[in-house]
Amino acid sequence: MEILFSLAHAGVRKRKRKSERMEENSNRIRQIVIVAVTMAAVILLSFAMYKANPIDFNMYDSSSQKYCKGVVTKVNDEDLNDAENMPGWKTGNQNVTVKIRNGEFKGKEVTFDNNLSSTHSVLVKKGTHVIVNVDAPEGIEPYFTIYQYDRTTGIIGVMLIFLALMALVGRWKGVRAALGLLSAAILIAFVLIPAIYNGKPPVLMTLLVCALITIVSLMFLNGPNPKTFAATLSTIIGLSLSAAFYGIFSLVLHMTGYNTPEAEDLQMISSATDLSIKSIMFCGILISSLGALMDIAMDIVSPLYEMKKHKPEITLREMFNSGMSMGRDMIGTLCQTLILAFAGSSLATLLVVVSYGTQFYQFICSDMMMVELLQSMTGSAAVVIAVPVSALLSCLFFGRNSKAETVPASGNAKGVKKKSAKKK
Question: What is the tens place of the pLDDT at every residue in 80-96?
Fold first, then answer.
């Protein structure tokens, strides 16, 4: 009898495992379909928006200049010196022969001088792959110079290593995260930049693109479920509230958007394309803080979802307090990440400022300092406010009647009822 019982039990376990594998395969297929359809939609939208907002205006006419690939076949002569106070940096002159690998002059070997200075030094040898600047105005002999090393192979290699690490560690979810990153780059490059360049409202376009990036990225990671919806809405609300913080901070700090180093060039573009300069700085803040907002939203929503799934009797107050407790631990590190990122990007500028003997009030009230402060504080304030928003939305989405499958505390619920009935 015991043998028959164990055989029956083994058959049940085998059928259960088979059912779980079938369900897992079904979920995998559904995820692949969602990712494929979403990526196709992103590409089609980006193509349509790019066609609707062509970048026709250029400040400088560079039609006579072409950049093409080349390989150094011979270094004919060189006169090089070590640059003063710059270890490993060479100055001087090289006479080189380069074979052009693409473009109008493909296959042609050209000989010219490669000048190395303290600000631009591309030291080459036989076999070095370079990018050649060909300046060929109509009716004039082409003029060749070495622009830079050909880094395309290195870029591809670095990206492949990064993608391989994501796939190796994150597996299928890592691949989906990489596709989410790719979709974000496509939306920014082919939707946001052309739209703003052609005079569309910068803040509105940035909020829409950030919302699309959030939806696509989180949908790729988790699929359409309450976690995704709650985290997406939390991120979008955090982005919207950051606009209020930016308005208050910029008013207090007397920042208008014309205080950036690029303002003069942007005014030239604005005269031809109706580009709105005033909100560009805020748009940059939104994009730079989007990753941190998505991170903190998902890091709060996901544990609360699992908590409700495994402990369905938890109260809304307990859920909210748990979310706030987790959020407090994350606030410090994420805000430091934003502030240190902005500070790190300005390190070279800060060193130059110090070398000028800048005085305290001169430095602390400068436009450069205020831009960095405004960027750091606005992004950090958005991250902080995202904590209660995420906790509250988690309670609203699956706090009362969670659609997640609840897991009994112990054993089978029916078995518990039967035992209690026997005791009675």
Answer: 888 888 888 889 999 99
